[in-house]
Amino acid sequence: MKQTFKLHKYLSEHIIEGSPKVSIYMPTHRSMPDAKQDPILFKNYVQQAERELEQNYNRRQWQPLIESLEQLNEDPDFWIHSTDALAILADETGVETFRLEQSIPGKVVTGKHFDLIPLLRYYDTIYSGYLVDIGRDRVNLYRVNQNGAEQVEEEDLIKSFPELYDDLDAEPRMHAGGTRADLSVMHGNKAKPELVEKDRIKYFRYIDEQLRKYITKDTPVIIAGTTENVAEYKSLAKGDFYTEQSIDQPFESIEQQQQPERLREILRPRYRERIKKQLEEFGYLTSQDKTVAGIEKVSEQAEQHRISTLFINSDYEPDDRGQLNNIIDRVIGSGGDVIILSDDKVDDNIAATLRY
Question: Half-sphere exposure of 78 toward its Cβ, with a 13 Å CA cutoff?
């Protein structure tokens, strides 16, 4: 979902060395009356953060940060649409929030670096991608992961759709936002089936073409729709990012609570396969002397911006947290990838492949 992208964008733009940083993780509740306790718990976490900052930083450095967190807590709209957990990163530049779809243990961490491992573990494990829900006369694009789906609001994929039919009157055929078109209306009530089918093929090819501009090669894209539409679309599509499995049912017709299960069936095996390939590559590069292991050696390479992919075991030593977060800052800041391993492991709890 888009929060995955928001996290990496935020970290790449807001890593300011020396400024105090606060990381808050807390479970939240989706419904009343349990949700009433969420603002109270958050207030307690903010007070804990203030006590810790007061011991280690000048008030001028942390007071605006705490005030921003207090203002967030007092905003009633913020607590309306809760999920299962909340992660908050705050520093002198502002506050960034992440709503998570599975519960995580609550904690507060203050210091020179954000505590990113819980967030990275969450996003890496759920494994995100896209889903394109295709109908005969409409398309919806979703960011998806193993916990659910979020419709893409920007509509970059289909905002130019009217240009496909610039020889026709746009008014009667386009619905809200330019996202839906009734092909039979476009050609009139007496349209020939072959004419409608010709435009449908043009429409499907256009979607595939735009997706190839919009989505990177390594990002999985699930196709959903009726069996007929999925089969026809796949026969025309040229993108190499589509998953082999599809959902032979319009995605919007699936009950929301059932959507995660359908997505997990497709995404979880791909996640495991991705980790397997990355560790195989790590093994090969180790034989080429292009990897390092151990926190001190990895830290040295991170300082020189030489890390391509960083692997951290999820059961790392708690005493190493500060140094690990420093390494993560360096790796993300230099464009590297960070992978938190839950099942497979690397030696010495941390290892990395190097740039050459």
Answer: 17
pTM above 0.85, yes or no: no
| Spatial separation of the C-alpha atoms in residues 185 and 136, rounded to whole Å | 13
Query: Could you report the per-residue pLDDT of 76-97, keeping only the tens digit for each?
Result: 889 988 888 999 999 888 899 9
Whether 342 and 283 have beta carbons less than 8 Å apart is answered as no
Distances (CA, A) of 181 to 42, 136, 139, 195, 223: 46, 9, 9, 15, 19
Domains in the chain, please, with CATH? 2-125 (3.30.960.10), 127-269 (3.30.420), 289-354 (3.30.1330.30)
Segments of the chain assigned E as strands: 21-27, 85-91, 94-100, 107-111, 129-134, 139-145, 148-151, 221-224, 291-293, 307-313, 337-341, 350-354
- Tokens at residue 325, please? 């977060």
Taking the C-alpha atoms of residue 239 and residue 215, their distance in angstroms, rounded to an integer, is 9
Render the burial of 107-125: b for 16+ CB within 10 Å, e for the rest. Answer: ebbbbbbbbbbbbbbbbbb
